[in-house]
Amino acid sequence: MNAVLIIDKPAGMTSHDVVNRVRRILQERSVGHLGTLDPLATGVLPLLIGNLTRLAQFYTSSDKTYEGTIRFGFATDTYDAEGKPTSPVQAATLSLDQVRQLATRFHGTIEQTPPPFSAKKIKGIPAYKLARKHVEVSLKPGQVEIKEFDISQVENERARFRARVASGTYMRSVAHDMGQLLGCGAHLESLRRTAVGEFELSDAHTLEELATAFKTDQTAHLFIHPRRLLPQFPCVTASEEMAAHIRTGRPVNLPELSQARLVKVFVGQRELLAIATRVAGTLFHAKLVLSGEQQRAQRRI
Fold first, then answer.
1. Can 38 be counted among the known catalytic residues?
2. Whole-structure pTM over 0.70, yes or no?
3. DSSP-assigned states of every residue in 44-112
4. What is the CATH number that goes with domain 3-61+199-224?
5. Of 50, 103, 134, 242, whose Cβ has the fewest other Cβ atoms within 10 Å?
6. Distance of alpha carbon 121 from its chain centroid, rounded?
7. Of 8, 17, 38, 63, which is the active-site residue?
8. First and final CA of the chain: distance in angstroms?
9. Candidates 3.20.20.70, 3.30.2350.20, 3.90.226.10, 3.30.2350.10; CATH matching 64-196
10. pLDDT (tens digit, 9 = 90+) per residue, 137-183?
């Protein structure tokens, strides 16, 4: 099975939990996700299935969009509502203008320190594993980009927000840092991811919907149409001769795509055969073969 599936991740599960559940439902070992969601978070979790797991390399820099709530008044060790308080609870009556003004300091490219409970590695060990053992975790700040950060509502100690961020940005750290600047502490109370790259909540399905569809052999309509994948790359439909060349590792001429560097090559409307890269002029060679004899041979090696 080669497909892309968007799951609406429920709260309380890790991204890896979801992957394992989908593996069992679909009886397919090769399943991977595009971007971890914390157990607290819900929403868009794109899964690549079968040979299409090899497309993950093209999604490493995809923007992500979130909606959520920041709770001011105390900080936690995980920077979210699942952690233990690390400061006394304070009254935090804030105005919408005050929080919006503070949010402007987090627009654009900023320095951000990841939460101690995160997947960032320290000498090869994920930071959260050390933090759980009460080992002091010291992570270095790095540059992240917050492209949009809008505060829509403030009520007493809670602020609702919408954010669009580049890959690698932690909204937990944003919440924590805002609390530090205000001097009252803060943490991320809720988070819902509404988009990853071209994938949105309207594309997402629950695990229960997937399980029901699989039992009745009705899963096809749940999968993303392959031509929607990687919209930045033009599509071309291969002739039988072109497809044969690509499957056996030979270059092909694609004069109608003379300006493109990378292209998606299809057989018919739905079979994504390959991602091809320009060699010179109108000559393209397959960077990834996703079906056919060459792909099967590569998998056996």
1. yes
2. yes
3. EEEEEEGGGGGGGGGSTT--EEEEEEEEES--BTTSBTTS-B-S--------HHHHHHHHGGGSEEEEE
4. 3.30.2350.10
5. 134
6. 19
7. 38
8. 20
9. 3.30.2350.10
10. 667 788 999 999 999 999 999 999 999 999 889 999 999 999 999 99
